[in-house]
Write a structure and sequence with these properties.
171 residues; mainly alpha; Tetracycline Repressor, domain 2; 8 helices; 0% strand
Length: 171
Amino acid sequence: MAKLTMSALAAKAGIARATLYHYFPNVDAVLSAWVAEEIERSVTTMVGQARAIADPLDRLAYLVRTQAETFASQSHRLSVEHFEAEAGSPALRGVVETQMAPLRAALAQIIQEAGDAGALGRTVDPMLGADMVLGLLGAIRRRLVAGSTDPETATEAVMGVLVSGWFRPTR
């Protein structure tokens, strides 16, 4: 990705380089738009489907599993190459953070609901809890991208940490 040029992108898209520059000032802007679209689509779908799950802890497990499956997907692997390269800009990182906000909010809502229902062993600020869940997913992300861990194992690991340390053991 670091060697990607506007000329190569324009050629691949079958348009003139000037046309590409009309819409995007540089390669980073093109990649940021692509990553934003991919994340928005993924997060919108996953959060929408999670709403149908009544139990907050089952909903949380669904979101963890679905995010793990996303990390393990081929399309995610391509975006990681740029995102984790030195060429990955602060603007691109900002796009990722912005597009992930609905997932973070959904996780916080689930944590609030689980706390209200008495399903958590400890009270945690919902946004802090959401960040903790995302942090656990982030910690296992490289293994999912590399294919050294499968989504089911990742889900069991993340939920296992949460259940043994945060949720009520009676669940």
